[in-house]
Amino acid sequence: MTKSPTELVFLGATAFCEIAEIVRDINRIEPTYSIRAILDDNPDLHGTMVEGTPVVGPLEECRRFPDARIVMGIGSYKTRMVRHAIIERLGLPEDRYATLIHPTAKIYPTVEIGAGCIVQCGAVIAADTVLEPFAHVLFNSFVGVGNRICRGALLTSLVSTAGGVTVGHYAHLGTTSSVAENRTIAAGAQVAMGSVVIRDVPLGAFVLGNPARRLRSEKVDESIVRMWENRDA
Ligand SMILES: CC(C)(COP(=O)(O)OP(=O)(O)OC[C@H]1O[C@@H](n2cnc3c(N)ncnc32)[C@H](O)[C@@H]1OP(=O)(O)O)[C@@H](O)C(=O)NCCC(=O)NCCS
Fold first, then answer.
1. Counting atoms of ligand 1 from 1, which one is nearest the CA of 77?
2. In terms of pTM, does the model score above 0.90?
3. Tens digits of per-residue pLDDT, 124-182?
4. Helix 82-90 × helix 222-229 angle, to 10°
5. Is 100-229 a CATH 2.160.10.10 domain?
């Protein structure tokens, strides 16, 4: 008997096209998913279509699709911490979220990947690395051996991390940034594009340049701070 495809509902219209392409490429190999709807809090988008998929309403509408898996597509440097608030607000069990891995990504067998993760084409996740739930690793990024990419962290395109790096909860690494071995980027931090991180980055810091230096710091939500402080508990 042929298995019916798993329905997907996307959160966020902005990144839909990029992430839907993972789904299409998976389906080309083996029909696995059908894309049902997009949800977005911007009322101007409701009733519109993105590449043939309807934007049906705000994020809460996910309750109308109890059998669908949810794709957490929201994620930019501006919304990096808002992502946490959205996940909390929706209160869905983690196993409702789909993890999408592009078929051209190379994931070593000892890697652990949680729910709600996105791994884009050409990404390489080296041995013994952990991607906690809702982590994103985008186009052609390399995540080194034994990294810990904490919940909700965003590694954009062409990012490169050496071995033993920790990227904190809901931190954002801009495109082409790189991180030296065994460095820790704390929760809620922002590494600007092209930066070279050779020192640990504190909680909520915005660092840039080569070598990366702190320009300013941003307030990190209490619940994200708690996750960070209790990360080894
Ligand atoms: C972080 C970022 C948004 C810039 O932030 P910002 O708050 O707008 O920073 P500003 O433009 O106000 O710049 C502040 C200062 O930092 C400098 N600066 C900004 N980005 C920089 C960078 N990546 N490297 C070095 N210096 C940078 C600016 O020249 C400016 O210096 P000045 O005060 O001497 O003029 C941008 O660098 C970045 O990383 N964007 C993310 C892009 C990305 O990765 N997208 C995902 C693609 S897949």
1. 41
2. yes
3. 999 999 999 999 999 999 999 999 999 999 999 999 999 999 999 999 999 999 999 99
4. 90
5. yes
